[in-house]
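Hi R.,

As promised on Friday, here is the backbone we talked about, encoded as C-alpha cells. Could you run it through your design pipeline when you get a chance and send me back a sequence?
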C-alpha cells in the first residue's frame, strides 16, 4: 500500500499550520492598508482639506499585534491638526490676514483675523478614520475569506508562500 500522497498532504497541512501566524499577520496588514485607502478615499470624495496633506498622511502599520486570538493593526494620521478634523473643535478666532487666496497666520496682526466656525459654537468633526474602519469591517469577512481561500489553494497546489 502506497500512502505517499497521504503523507505529502499531511506535510502540506503541517506547513500551512506552521505558517498561520505569518499568514494572519499579512492579512491584518492588508486590512490596515484597506482601511487607510478608505480614509484617503473619503477625504478625496468629500474634499475635506484643500492641500491634500491630511489625506496623504493616513498610514497603516507594517506589523500586526497579536492579542489573544485576534490580530490588531494600527491605522493613523499623525498630523497636528488630524485630531481636531477627526473629532471636531470649538470655534475660535485666528489672528492674521488674507494674501490672495491663502490666509497668513500672524500672532499679533493689526489687520485682524478670522473666526473659524460659528461664533461661540462648535465645528463638527469629519470622523474620517472612524468611517473608514466601519467601511472596512462591513466588507471584511468576504475579503478575508477570498484571500484565505486563495492562500490555501496556492499552498495545497504546491505554490508555497505568496
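Update: got your reply. Pasting your designed sequence below so it's all in one thread:
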Amino acid at each position: 500500500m502506497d500512502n505517499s500522497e497521504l503523507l505529502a498532504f499531511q506535510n502540506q497541512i503541517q506547513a500551512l499550520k506552521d505558517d498561520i501566524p505569518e499568514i494572519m499577520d499579512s492579512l491584518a496588514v492588508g486590512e490596515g492598508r484597506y482601511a487607510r485607502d478608505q480614509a484617503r478615499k473619503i477625504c478625496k470624495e468629500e474634499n475635506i482639506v484643500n492641500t491634500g496633506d491630511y489625506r496623504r498622511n493616513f498610514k497603516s502599520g507594517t506589523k500586526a499585534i497579536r492579542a489573544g486570538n485576534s490580530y490588531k493593526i494600527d491605522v493613523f494620521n499623525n498630523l497636528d491638526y488630524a485630531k481636531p478634523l477627526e473629532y471636531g473643535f470649538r470655534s475660535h478666532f485666528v489672528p492674521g490676514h488674507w494674501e490672495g487666496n491663502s490666509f497668513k497666520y500672524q500672532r499679533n496682526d493689526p489687520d485682524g483675523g478670522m473666526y473659524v466656525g460659528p461664533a461661540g459654537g462648535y465645528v463638527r468633526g469629519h470622523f474620517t478614520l472612524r468611517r473608514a474602519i466601519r467601511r472596512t469591517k462591513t466588507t471584511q469577512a468576504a475579503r478575508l475569506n477570498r484571500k484565505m481561500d486563495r492562500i490555501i489553494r496556492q499552498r495545497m497546489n504546491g505554490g508555497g508562500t505568496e
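One thing I noticed while checking it: The chain has a mean pLDDT of 88.

Thanks again,
M.
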